[in-house]
Amino acid sequence: MPSVSIIIPCYNEQSTICELLEAIYAQTFPRTDLELIIADGMSTDGTRAQISEFSISHPDLPITILDNPKRHIPSGLNRALKETRGEIIIRLDAHSIPYPNYIERCVADLEAGLGENVGGVWDIRPPTNTWIAQSIAYAAAHPLGVGDALYRHARKSTLVDTVPFGAFKRELLALVGLFDETLLTNEDYEFNARIRKSGGKVWLDPSIRSIYFSRSNLPELAKQYFRYGYWKWNMLRRYPGTLRLRQALPPLFVLSLLGLMITGFFLLTIRMIFLAEIIVYMLIQFSIGFLSALKHKKISLFLGMPLAISCMHVSWGAGFLWSMISGIFPRTALEKN
Asked: Most buried among 113, 158, 266, 318, using CB within 10 Å?
């Protein structure tokens, strides 16, 4: 049985960290072959205290807490990687809860040679029971919201561009290196791009499942997807060949709205085209909302799904375009933070 190191970056995660630790402790994989390395971004809540208490009450699961003063995910991952001893490394997130056989399935796929990096599917759930939080969770798993990001809705195993979190053999690091600390988001996609560029495979297995908690409201969702779009452009400048249709459509949509809105001030025909685009877009959105409301028997999805998906599209597209514009000038405040 290979030894496994689990790495987790976290910051102020007291609301979810205990659930994650309990889920790791309940894994079907032998705890004698496990170690857990947590890179904490100097949490100011009770996160570290909860981890320490769990470690004391569960001495058969080795847990190491490291300081991550940069507070960035890639720096935390690299800090943890340097302390690992396992033959296989599995990355998890403090907002996730792996299914009981998560580690066992990751190890099995790696041992079978299915991919150099393997991962599974998110079972996306709302963090609260409000109607908008539920709508966001459904939208985050719907193809209209996330396109062909298969790790959010796939049902068959397949080769993919990227997987959430991921599991890989230690020897892979000697080939592709550590995570890129200049990318504050999309560091996992960039890591997988290097794997594929080196001739390796990224494998998605739907039997590898974890619960992932989506954002609870629209402002949080907008901030998250703006950040995703912003850092996606930074990643694409290095790997332009990795651009996918799902990534190009949101900025094109936002750009078309801006262009039509501006030129519409001068031409009636352009105003009519702008209005037609909005109407068609909203008809599609409310059709999805209606079908989702019927399927899940939640009337709130009729309005919630259009709101959530529109927020995702516009925020992602705006972040992408802003990143392109700001790239012309010196580093922006967003990049410094």
From this structure: 318
